[in-house]
Amino acid sequence: MATLAPPIKIDLPPQGEWTYADWLRLPDDGFKYEVIDGELHMSPPPSIAHQNSTTSLAARMRHHAEKHDLGLVLTSPVGVRLPNQEVPVQPDILFIVKNRLNLVGDNYVEAAPDLVVEVLSPGNWMYDRGQKLEVYEQAGVKEYWIVDYRKKTVEVLVLEDSEFVLQNVYGVGDTAVSVILTNFSVPVADIFRK
Fold it and tell me: Model confidence over 152-173: pLDDT tens digits?
């Protein structure tokens, strides 16, 4: 008769007290773990629609940035160490302008990217519109795109006087335009094409 191994007990800190060391102990199980202001946030692996939107937009952004020698586009999983956050966050897509590429280390981006894109999922949309938006704003991210594959919209927010201001909400039939990624625009329908 086979015997069952006892369950593994992991001592988890209470919300608000998570540290970088605690984060490092989390399993590599396909889930996305982020800690903001000591609070753990966990997301399951993204849906196919989420990945289609992310890779489609990232490919266009990266091609544009490379073609015009503007900087670097990276996609998740990539760690970003923001000011006042002990644990790196993982934006879906980020862009760093050419003259700030010294911020890209071997393991992490060591400051706020110039542009961040988050693709909403049913399980994380409040987090991306709430805590993550605030932490990006406080860190000085200059432009924040919120991509919603269910509504097929792209919201572009730009940092003005230390606060994000909505520049526009683009839908299918519109062309989304970046302020920071010079001369970059993309038909919204192309982001959500399967």
Answer: 999 999 999 999 999 999 999 9
CATH code at position 110: 3.90.1570.10
Buried/exposed 62-83: b ≥16 CB within 10 Å, e otherwise: bebbeeeebbbbbbbebbbbbe
Beta bridge partners of 146: 118, 155
Cα separation, 56 vs 152, in Å, equals 13
In a domain, 5, yes or no: no
The model scores a pTM over 0.85: no
Q: Is 112 inside a domain boundary?
A: yes
Cβ atoms within 10 Å, residue 36: 20
Number of domains in the chain: 1
